[in-house]
Amino acid sequence: MAESAACPGFQLGRPRYDQGSFLGRLRHFVDIIDPRTLFVSEKQLKDCIQLLDDYKHGTLPPGVSSHQLWEAQKIKQAIIHPDTGEKIFMPFRMSALIPGLIQVIGLLLPNQTVLSTIIWQWLNQSHNACVNYANRNATKPTPTSKFLQGYAGAVTSAVSIAVGLNVLIKNANKLSPASRTIIQRFVPFPAVATANICNVALMRHSELSEGIDVMDNNGNVVGILKSCSETCEHFILALKAIMETAFTRVVLPMPIFVLPTIIMSYLERLSFLQRNRRLMLPIHSFVCLLTFSLSLPVAISLFPQMSEIEVSRLEPEIAVATECKSVTYNKGL
């Protein structure tokens, strides 16, 4: 019984943990960003894909446990794009987010110049754009121009706010040099948060007019909520999805960009580090890595990725396409 609770029966294509609870979502995203999947060999990947194919076609060898099937699915989902069936370029996989945080460390370095601020903000938004594109929803063709539009908007807003705030702080004569330095360290957060909102708005504004996919309990698309009814239900749902995603994108960088700043402000006052300034950068990098590793899965687990709506609120053509009383739609992360 304890074993069953620890490892539920395998369901192909479904999350291993309950997405209705914070703990379930946390365990789910810890699996998704697990950097150990970066070291899976080609043979291991092929074995995992074969095992899942055997399960799908009912030819599973005897003795294969649910745990083995969950692990195989975890590895496949971490490496193979679900829509294209191709391998995701390693640096842009979700499991590479924590190992590839050099641009986050750069954003949090003290005593930034205008040029270094621009370079680090550009690198961060470029990395974000590549991750978003590599893990995009490829079931519908998305014009490259839309990705470029979102990328340009994110870079422009991030650089503008970061540089603007730094200039304002430097010209604030009433602030002491120590206060000015501490406040400057918090600048990356509003810059990145605003860029995230801008990116979501530019990339997903078409959902307000085109509608969004709704799915049944098995994850099958039963229709697109797009025809405007008297209450403009599709517009309300799309707007709600975009606003929830934007709010998530504001909360996401908060612990990542705020906690290391607070911790380092305290550590830098220690006499040990005052005497050994060369250790500042490696300790700063370690603090960033630690906080990023702990806070990232917590931040993305705060809100469920899927939202639910009753079928009775949808258009008749969608309602007759499913026997479910409610359907779900992906609001994004």
UniProtKB/TrEMBL annotation:
Membrane topology listed for this record: Multi-pass membrane protein
Signal sequence interval, chain numbering: none
Claim: Transport is one of the keywords in the record: yes
One Gene Ontology CC term in the entry: mitochondrial inner membrane
Source organism superkingdom: Eukaryota
GO BP field: amino acid transport; mitochondrial transmembrane transport
Keyword Mitochondrion listed: yes
Cellular compartment(s): Mitochondrion membrane
Main location: mitochondrion
MF terms (GO), sorted A to Z: citrate transmembrane transporter activity; monoatomic ion transmembrane transporter activity
Residue stretches spanning the membrane: 96-123, 150-169, 246-267, 279-303
Family: Belongs to the sideroflexin family.
Name of the protein this chain belongs to: Sidoreflexin
